[in-house]
Amino acid sequence: MADPSSYRPKPGQIPDSPGVYKFRDEHRRVIYVGKAKSLRQRLSNYFQDLANLHPRTRTMVTTAASVEWTVVSTEVEALQLEYTWIKEFDPRFNVKYRDDKSYPYLAVTLNEEFPRVQVMRGAKKKGVRYFGPYGHAWAIRETVDLMLRVFPVRTCSAGVFKRSAQIGRPCLLGYIGKCSAPCVERVSAEEHRELAEEFCDFMAGRTGAYIRRLERLMAEAAEEMEYERAARLRDDIEALKRAMEKSAVVLADATDADLIALAEDELEAAVQIFHVRGGRIRGQRGWVTDKVENVDTAALVEHALQQLYGEERGDAVPKEVLVPALPDPVEPVQQWLTERRGSNVSLRIPQRGDKKDLMATVQRNAQQALALHKTKRASDLTTRSRALEEIAEALELDSVPLRIECFDISHLQGEDVVASMVVFEDGLARKSEYRRFQIRSFEGQDDVRSMHEVISRRFKRYLQEKQKTGEWEEKTGPDAADLVSGAVPGPADPSGAAPGPKDEEGRPKRFAYPPQLVVVDGGRPQVAAAQRALEELGIDDVAVCGLAKRLEEVWVPGEEDPVVLPRTSEGLYILQRVRDEAHRFAIAYQRNKRGKRLTASPLDTVPGLGESRRQALLKHFGSLKKLKGATIEEICEVPGVGRKTAETVAATLAQAAPAAPAVNTATGEIIEDEEAPQAALPSEQGQER
């Protein structure tokens, strides 16, 4: 634990202006990011008597080894920069809302020629219209099934759409009237897009006018004695009303609003959000967070707003956001939301009426979510802590291994040999720090030699970057520029980036943080190779162990017998999780690499021939075999391919060695060229490592 006074800046060095500050640990990792209206007043609060600090704040300042800051012009800029740095550095002491699922949206792909209605999760895409989020995907599908009768928009995948167009027959939905079948040109692209836009208008809440129009058309059809058409319109109206009944009206006047409520105690807080669109609840979501620092309800609301709207599209921000407490000050946050939306956003606390009643409902949901989470979380925290303590005791470590790195080697019969490195911090996977390796120093299969190479490369990189960082700091030294940027001790880049080596985008590399424990997938030989690699580099403060698959034995360097943990041991369970994750990650990389190698084409070697023209050539001729037999004049007929390129393609294909015919091992039949890459794959059963 560090003494905060060792890196405390002098009060006169800290500017009395808005800005964003970062605390870093001894390895230059950013562990906390904060913003302040006055940097001088805010930072001085961290360097008071430790006994007066909140326990988590005290842990943060004693873990840190330096503090630096960046001055900005306004509080809105500080809010934006704080959010950017939290997303970039993922500091361990910042408030982080952990969403337990990826909430589904009803999406309409208006960026396609024939828009498609579907369920979507994950990151938003440009040109796609989203509605939701919804609590369950089945709720979306029920709603869509009712509305397809009135708005028969395409819902099929690209493969089904293309197949139906080729054979000239629509899919089942086209036959039963729940798709307008643009694949077989029953409607034009313009007519289908108009259907999709009407669907979007209805989902956006403009329902009354559309239903009144259908009722008027039904009455006109009945007057003209077109009873079958009138009956269809009647059924359409009933289907739309059933779809509308699935989300009851909770707010009048077609209100668009998000309601955010919190339930909290001294350690944790739960957030619940209701999305109301057109006066109806269109979705619900929730998060839970650890209160790492001593934050009040207003600060939690501000963090929730950043989390909720930081990555959303502008049209996802509603006109009105109702919260239980306003951030202090509220003006920068409201201005930020207004800029995100592109028009004015009302951020306020509901005082009376239906909105206050609905906020009480959201509050009850938050309290129930916190109670449920605490029931699960208590055992989860206890289990992880006990597991790490068991590992430290079994391996006789000086401290609990808060950071564990695991390495695994993967290959297929000695080909495409690769390795993986996965990282677990505090017993949880940290996927942003996973790494993959290709074995470079030799050919063939040798797991021990491969493990030695991978460990050497990983820790050699750590030593090199540590040395570069030290040389950079020694060369620069503290001066007036350092005081402006706020680095104490040592300098920092005024942009806020860490000193030392950086990647291609100018961000600090995050590969150099050393673990307390290295786990290798294997037994005594692999453990010995890993230990030898560390000793050759002069590293003696990182523990090594191996987990053998057969008996789940834990091997340590220099011991004749393994450490046997009980089968019910939580420590053994977490080592198995780390090992299995490394194995999965290595297998995925090895398969990806092998797939690229097996699907390589002679066209890849043609100089100046890009992916678009390669696809055009294969599409024009149908197969590589037919392309090889084509004349230069025939190749020139492909759009975008000139005579010089055609001559180069013909010459390259003529020089390529003919591939041996692939044989189906079950039937003995020769497989055509188009199927050769897939048929050439050897059986993976029992052969993949």
UniProtKB/TrEMBL annotation:
Which InterPro entries does the UniProt entry name for this protein?
A: GIY-YIG_endonuc, GIY-YIG_endonuc_sf, GIY-YIG_UvrC_Cho, Hlx-hairpin-Hlx_DNA-bd_motif, RuvA_2-like, UVR_dom, UVR_dom_sf, UvrABC_protein_C
- Record the organism: Streptomyces ochraceiscleroticus
User: Record's Pfam families?
Assistant: GIY-YIG, HHH_5, UVR, UvrC_RNaseH, UvrC_RNaseH_dom
Membrane-crossing residue ranges in chain numbering: none
Task: Write out the function statement from the record.
Answer: The UvrABC repair system catalyzes the recognition and processing of DNA lesions. UvrC both incises the 5' and 3' sides of the lesion. The N-terminal half is responsible for the 3' incision and the C-terminal half is responsible for the 5' incision.
List UniProt keywords, sorted A-Z: Cytoplasm, DNA damage, DNA excision, DNA repair, Excision nuclease, Hydrolase, SOS response
Identify the residues that the record assigns to the UvrC family homology region profile domain, covering every copy. Answer: 259-534
Quaternary data: Interacts with UvrB in an incision complex.
Ranges for domain UVR come to 208-243
Q: What is this protein called?
A: UvrABC system protein C
User: Residues in domain GIY-YIG?
Assistant: 16-95
Entry's family note: Belongs to the UvrC family.
UniProt main location, coarse:
cytoplasm
Q: Which Gene3D superfamilies match?
A: 5' to 3' exonuclease, C-terminal subdomain, GIY-YIG endonuclease, UVR domain, UvrC, RNAse H endonuclease domain
Chain intervals for the UniProt region annotation (Disordered): 466-509, 665-689
Any one Gene Ontology MF annotation carried by this entry is:
hydrolase activity
**Localization:** Cytoplasm
Give the Low complexity compositional bias ranges. 486-500
In terms of HAMAP family, this protein maps to: UvrC
Basic and acidic residues bias: start-end ranges: 466-477
